[in-house]
Amino acid sequence: MLSYIKGVLEEVLADTIVIEANHVGFSIQVPGSIFKELPGIGESVKIYTYLHVREDAMVLFGFITKDDMEIFKKLITVNGIGPKGAMGILSVMNGYELRVAIMSNDLNRICLAPGIGRKTAQKLILDLKDKLKLIDFEDGTDASGIQKATNISLRYADEGVEALVALGYSSHEAIQAVKGLHDQDSVEAVIKEALKKLAKF
After folding, report:
1. Whole-model pTM?
2. What is the Cβ-side half-sphere exposure of residue 57, based on CA atoms within 13 angstroms?
């Protein structure tokens, strides 16, 4: 099993990248959200991978973070959401943002994904809500989203986002408000500063 591929980025196509590693070119399908995170052609890149085996083909799917890969694996367990649907979802939000949307029942956010209607979004939430936590990769190595954009504890950030959603803000608004905060040493401080930012929007 290929856990990840580290090599030179050789080509970037509409929904696929090619990485050369050990003189082998790997064609990897990726979500649209990955392109802004990629280095330039000819530069080194590490992509977490999942090999999907069908009767007629083997397809390699790739992600910048381990978090997004694990979310992808959970998504394809939902009846009616195959790899194509899962990639569509992760093209409009990263794994952390999807996790928040599921935990806060944010149907509108999930329905932004191509081909995902309210019925499918409701099923996704029902199937995955008990399987996901806001903190799934707390070791800090591969956690995405908020942890990369803030200097505060990931736990404080998560609880702050949950509190803002409970106050009626969308998951997207809550995440954006918590991103960029620095040095808050409690959940209460995170919420207070985030509310100040939201008041300016």
Report:
1. 0.71
2. 3
The token pair that represents 108 in the structure block: 């509108």
Q: Which of 43, 65, 87 is the last residue of a domain?
A: 65
**Going by DSSP bridges, is the β-strand pair 44-53/24-29 parallel, antiparallel, or unpaired?**
unpaired
Nearest CA to 48 out of 33, 23, 29 is that of 29
Give residue-wise pLDDT tens across range 64-84: 998 899 999 999 999 989 999
Q: Which of 32, 65, 98 is the last residue of a domain?
A: 65
Per the CB < 8 A criterion, the answer to whether 123 and 96 are in contact is no
Decide if 62 contacts 68 (C-beta within 8 A). no
- The Cα 134–Cα 148 span in angstroms is 15
> What would the pLDDT profile of 115-165 be if each residue is shown by its tens digit?
899 999 999 999 998 777 654 433 333 344 455 545 556 677 778 888 888
